[in-house]
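**User:** Once you have settled down, spend some time on the protein underneath, comparing sequence with structure tokens, and judge whether sequence predicts the tokens.
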Amino acid sequence: MIIDCHGHYTTAPAAHADWRAAQLAAWEAGVAAPAYPDIPDADIRESLEANQLRLVRERGADLTIFSPRASVMGHHLGDLETSIAWAEACNDLIARAVGLYPESFAGVAQLPQAAGAGLDAAIRELDRRVTQGFVGVNLNPDPSGGHWTSPPLTDRYWYPLYERMVEHDVPAMIHVSASANPAFHATGAHYMNADTTAFMQLLQGDLFADFPELRLVIPHGGGAVPYHWGRYRGLADMLGKPALADHLMGNVFFDTCVYHQPGIDLLLEVVPHANVLFGSEMVGAVRGIDPETGHYFDDTLRYIEAAGLSGADREAILSGNALRVYPRLASPALMG
């Protein structure tokens, strides 16, 4: 079985995005948002059959852990109330996609967040979605959109959410949204910055002493972390922290959303294979065909297959690790 841990509904029907634009315009004008549109199942099917499902079938994966489009979570837009309504609409759409294709998708929830606001709404949405069969959440460490006004992930501000995640036995993928800072391109800089920053925040703290069962996935191959693994090992030593293997790697995992063979090879050479989950992010940040290979950049399964892994390591990366990190995937409803 091949489980893609990182899929987004980037091809949702246009009416969904149109409502978001209308919602934000209403917020700006100080009036009530319009009612959410009635989107037929046929529109959802068309949006998936022509895109994610077609590519999954062509490339050979079995199950995609599927969440709302990260770049339009937009926690920096509107306020907490608009974020609550938008998260509910996005997660409802994911639930419908999963319901239509339960053999192909498992849901991960967007959380309602706003810079400076509390996490009660995020916890309520987590509770609600777990009861619907969602297997995890996406957690934005920077809801300001590139200005980094929130406390680090090790701060007690986040603890109520972590407590509930542990209670439900669900992980979070640490994933930012769009950039509101013109210095940071969203997918080329802000995402990578956030992945690297999240790892360093975790290194500096002792979060997993308080939450030994908490599991966090850092996407996009861990940002710059694998490339600078020696730097982070050295910083752990300088800061008086345990070795990375003991300090973080029982709780922190990376995906394989790295879009060339040398990058995947580096990731797999540096990071323990038990901490790597197969992911492609498709249809996502990089959608074109690599002129050097003739294959899609985000066809990351090709890179895994060419990495010379043992059978056991290949199985772990393609499915076993995901089943450990997202244990709710093993429910009878999801595993058929």
Remarks:
- The longest strand covers residues 3-9.
